[in-house]
Every structure is written in C-alpha cells, then in structure tokens.
Amino acid sequence: MPNVDINKIKIVNDNPRTGFDKEKLNELAESIRERGILQPLVCKQVGEYYQLIAGERRLRAAKIAGLNEVPIVLRNTLDNEIKIDQVIENLQREDLSAEDKFLAFKKMRENDLSIKEISKKTGVNSTVVSSILALENLDNAIRSRNDIDEYPKQLIAKAPQSIQSILAERVAAGELGIRCLLADVLPTFGKVEKETTLNKNEKKYVIERVAKETIFKKYPASSIFAQEVGKKKMELRGIKPKVVSINTMEDF
To answer: Would you call 69 a catalytic residue per the annotation?
Structure first.
C-alpha cells in the first residue's frame, strides 16, 4: 500500500456522483488531518500517473486537508470496468442522490449490463434498479425537481412526455397523489391508447383532459375517458351530444 504524490492522481472517468456536499467534505478533511486516510484510494497505474478508480471524495478532502501524499491500492482494471467500479464504490459508501443513482445505473447499462447483472454487482434489488432506470423517460426538468418525491417521479415517467409537466405541477401542488396516479390516471392512459374509436388527435385530447382535470374519486380519469368515448360513439351514429357540465353528463 504505497503512498504517492497527490498531484499524480488523475480523475479520468466521470464519477457517478455529480455533487459533493462542501460541509461534509470539510468534516472529512478535518478527520483526515487528525487521523489520516484510513482507507486507501483505489487506482490504476498509467505510466507515471495513477488513474483514480474509487475514492474521489477522499481525494478531494485530502487536498483540502493539505496532504502531499495519499495511500493507494493498485488495481489492474479494464477501462470499461472502471465506471462500474466507481458506481459500486459509491453505492457502498455514502448514499448517492436519486439522480446520481440514475446516472450510475444508466452508465452500467450502457456498458451492456442487464438489470439482473446491475443488481448482482451493486446489491440493489432488481425492481429498484428497473424503477430508477425508468426515469430515463422522464423530462430532465422534472427529474431534477426537489418538490416531487422519487416514487411519483417514477410514475410520471410512465406517462406520455407531452403531459408529464402537467402531472408534475399537479403532484407538486398536492392535487394528484400516488394512489390516484397508480390506480386511475396511468391505467386510463393505457385504455386511451388502446381505444379504437378515437383517432390520434382525439386520444391526445383525452389524455390532456385526464392530466388536467382528474380528481381522485370525485372526478376520476376513468369517468373522463368514458365520457369522451361515449360522445365519440354517439357522433359515429349521427348523434351530436352537447355536454354542458359533469352533472349534465350524469343526467344524460
């Protein structure tokens, strides 16, 4: 376990962690000043330099602490395995944010790892891995929002991208809950897509109505869908109903 010049350690690959808490880094730096680095950095030797595989947080804190040398462990790792090792090292230590986990699992999948393989290497349940990777279908602006929890984000990601922002705003405002999305809104989107009496533009209109108007139990998405399909079937028979309000539709 040699000590090497801290300036000879290079960060080549993108770390799965996109952010480092300054306060926690300073706390770690203070601990390093007092006790040194208890766990060495993992590196691959490339010429006279060392490519960092795991330990970027410790490296940053060591620089803050003013260390000139740091302990390392050398590992012969193929280039395409370095990112995977970085992901695993981070997951085993301080929790990554949901966004960092998503980016990490995405990188692993881009390295041709299946959901099952990612789960085995990281120790994260395959269902959780799959749910996190589903965020790839979510609008980037929604994915980075802090006013929406991760599970609702995963549900919104299953909706058409054209109305994801509408759902996000309603979820953030407390107008749509998990139960409503899971039991009513999303299943209705599926029914709309399968409905043969509606054309493409009509399906888009119904989906937008569901996203904007659904109120769990009081005005469920399934009712909106039933109204629109009923109107369409009447129109196909030459009947042109005029719906003025929800009550009118119920009376009708």
So the answer is: no
